[in-house]
């Protein structure tokens, strides 16, 4: 496997010898396919991450704080706030003041948000299966990330 149009050979020299290089290339290609699958639903990858975080964190009838959504999604606080504002404008989430923290906001999915998240999750599972099912990577990657923090 060589980068498209690079003329590079598959020799294990330079960046071609780096697992990190190939992980980066795979990540970009996977993200391109995921974005293509999410676009018809009106979502970007980051919006899907944040919407998914709200959905996952609220699965036990909890209403997660905006900061918990940011932490779970791995998106910084300012970006999470901007993404949630866009999702709120699209009627996918609702944010309400946190009664226990005057500066905080609580987030929950709207019915449209739940339906959109379900459809987006199905699309993401399909893209993941196309890219990774034969590789059996999920558990290995999770263990590696846990070791590295």
From TrEMBL:
Q: PROSITE patterns, per this entry? A: HTH_MARR_2
Xref: Pfam families: MarR (PF01047)
Supply the name of the protein.
Answer: MarR family transcriptional regulator
Q: Which keywords label this protein?
A: DNA-binding, Transcription, Transcription regulation
Q: Which residues form the HTH marR-type domain?
A: 16-149
């Amino acid at each position: 496997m060589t980068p498209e149009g690079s003329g590079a050979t598959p020799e294990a020299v330079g960046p071609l010898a780096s697992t990190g290089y190939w992980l980066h290339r795979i990540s970009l290609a996977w993200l391109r396919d995921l974005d293509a699958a999410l676009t018809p639903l009106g979502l970007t990858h980051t919006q899907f991450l944040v919407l998914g975080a709200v959905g996952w964190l609220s699965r036990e009838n909890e209403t997660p704080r905006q900061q918990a959504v940011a932490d779970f999604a791995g998106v910084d606080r300012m970006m999470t706030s901007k993404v949630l504002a866009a999702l709120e404008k699209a009627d996918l989430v609702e944010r309400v003041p946190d009664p226990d923290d005057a500066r905080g906001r609580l987030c929950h999915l709207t019915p449209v948000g739940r339906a959109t998240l379900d459809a987006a999750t199905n699309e993401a599972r399909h893209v993941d299966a196309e890219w990774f099912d034969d590789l059996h990577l999920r558990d290995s990657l999770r263990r590696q990330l846990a070791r590295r923090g």
